[in-house]
Structure formats: structure tokens, C-alpha cells
Write a structure and sequence with these properties.
- It comes from Fodinibius sediminis.
- This is Methylated-DNA-protein-cysteine methyltransferase related protein.
- This protein is mainly alpha-helical.
- It has a single domain, classed as Arc Repressor Mutant, subunit A (Orthogonal Bundle).
- Helix content is about 40%, strand content about 5%.
- A two-stranded parallel ribbon has the order 1-2.
Length: about 90
């Protein structure tokens, strides 16, 4: 595993239950331009294709995350920004 992927994994594994983050928030935290608790900037479950069936949504619902009918998470309620909670070494 590359150093970059290890850093991404470290951030993703730090996401608390019942919270989500975005790819952009992780990239900003890691200083890079450009899992089931990661959604896109609109709160959409774009990573669903990497999970069987509806596993991504089901896991998040088990953690208390609620969705709109279009598989969207309300980021104003569930957003977790690593730059606010973690310190880069």
C-alpha cells in the first residue's frame, strides 16, 4: 500500500459512527488537489458500486445516518471534516 493510500485509510478509519465525510474534505486535509462513510460533495452515495446491493446505505442507516429518497445525506447534519478533528503529522 502506498503512503498516500495509508494516509487516506487512516483518515477514513477515523470517521466516527453516525458521521460521513467527502472525498474533497479528505483531499483538502491531506493537501491533495483534486469506504462506506465517504460520500460526494452533494451528500450522494457515489461509492455504492463498490459494495454489494445496498450495503453502503444499510451500514450508514445502522449508524443512525438518515437519507432522502434519492440516497442523499444531509451534510449540514452528518458532515465530519478531518481538518477540524485530526492533525496532520
Amino acid at each position: 500500500m502506498s503512503d498516500y493510500h495509508e494516509r487516506v485509510y487512516e483518515v477514513v478509519s477515523s470517521i466516527p459512527e453516525g458521521k460521513v465525510t467527502t472525498y474533497g474534505a479528505i483531499a483538502r486535509y491531506l493537501g491533495v488537489a483534486s469506504a462506506h462513510r465517504v460520500v460526494n460533495r452533494n451528500g450522494e452515495l457515489t461509492g455504492r458500486g463498490h459494495f454489494p446491493d445496498d450495503t453502503m446505505r444499510e451500514r450508514l442507516q445502522q449508524e443512525g445516518v438518515r437519507f432522502s429518497e434519492d440516497y442523499r445525506v444531509d451534510l449540514s447534519e452528518y458532515m465530519w471534516d478531518p481538518s477540524l478533528y485530526l492533525r496532520e503529522n
